[in-house]
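This part of the workshop introduces the protein records we will be handling. An example says more than a description, so a record of this kind follows:
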Amino acid sequence: MVLLPAEESYHISRVLRLQPGTEIELMDGHGGVYTAVIVEAGRKVIARMICLKEEGSDGLVQFWVGQGLLKGKKMDGIVQQCTELGVNRLIPFFSSRCQGSLRELRERQKAERWDRIVISACKQCKRRDLMVIEEMVEFSTMLSQFENAPGLLRLLFWEEEKDFRLRPEMVGEGKFDKILILLGPEGGFSRDEVSLAREGGWQTVSLGRRILRAETATLAAVSLVQYLAGNM
């Protein structure tokens, strides 16, 4: 038997008005999908597990996104869209052009709120595993964390890059085990930050001629990389 959380119980009994005997699907957040039957419906919903329907990962390339913190509720949208598009890890970071201090931004991270957004997005798109949201770090700290990671392709999207655009051969299917892309806040990256990343082995790439809003650039970059990596 499984006792569902209060929020899920309310949705099942008061919104969907499902009755005992109704068959439902439960996800464990790690790729497992289970068939279950409602035994008791009310303030607390209890379900009886029947069988494991699906298990394990889908064998896709691990895809991580480092995102410079955006203002207001824009980060909520980033969390939702990255979850829907299959990002495995989201790493929020503080860079020179983020507004506010790192301490203030960490207080604003609202991990519980972002976790709820991830769960909601997974249910909507029937994603089996939860996207992990890492604790916010300094830009330089994040660079050093992934400096010598084997099998990892590291790309930094920069609007001033003129020579290298994202190309299929850069992220071709099967070339890397993991891909990590970096996208800046509203003001983008400074030249010093770009130089630091390049010195650490990051490849700067362009999204093309258009100057995009920060949140639009993230959506475009994530979609393109996922497609080229064979994850869509």
